[in-house]
Amino acid sequence: MTKNNKACCTPTNPESSVTLVEPIDFADSGSTSGMRSLEGGAFLMGTDRDEGFPADGEGPAREVTLRAFHIDITSVTNRQFTNFVKDSGYRTDAEKFNWSFVFHQQLAARSRKHVDDTVFGLEWWCKVSGTNWRHPEGPRSNIKRRMDNPVVHASWNDAIEYCRWAGKRLPTEAEWEYAVRGGLVQKIFPWGNELEPGGKHQCNIWQGEFPAHNTCDDGYAGTAPVRSFKPNGYGLYNMVGNVWEWCSDWFSPDFHLAATRDNPVGPESGDRKLMRGGSFLCHDSYCNRYRCAARTANTPDSSTENCGFRCVRDA
Known about the structure:
It is built from 4 helices and 14 strands. By secondary structure, the protein is α+β, with helices and mostly antiparallel strands.
């Protein structure tokens, strides 16, 4: 199977109207508990390697300069999101649409009757009514034993509202990439250039033959607890694999070629928001976007069972 240059791991909501909540450009009131302070400065963003997808705009490698900022050590958990919803009464986009996307092998057995449709060309993705962050594999599933797993079925809009409640914001793409690299220069992964150094798994991605057979050699068929695997050089967990993470920027494959490289924030407008890091469904045979420089995007109100987020705070 050849690699796919589409967002194969993040299907788009066909009902999307690119509904956008007001973004957050600056946030310095949130608690820094559970965050790392990063000093910023200059780093090499992007890549000149050819292991990715040219249409995604991963390259070229270029020097970017950032201000200091704080970033969550982990992606936002089900426990944290539960506290947010209890306090605010917020309803997610998936709850408003009354459905979300579930990977076919993850679908709870008793929820199969709630499958409304599949995605053309990506038939492993099922549109399942009653699916949301509380019921991630269909209405008959729950998160009771997964409170330390990342919240999923969270749209970009949902992530922004959580950030607003927490006194934080989403990372810019440049901040996210600075963080994922953990101080290493132009390495493919947060830990180096080998996917499994010494035969040891470093992240939660697909093993086996995608999308039919997952051997789960890394120990997980779906999401893993947010502190699984070894953190990167900045002490950040699961920056690649596990779940995609939203960034604040609009997606463009070439905007960065002429844009400022001093605290870049992406285009002023667009139709899709950036996502970084890959997920537990990524596999080299189809989508190896679990690399530091890899990128994809989705509409702000789309949600899937493999997409979450982490927050940053201005220093």
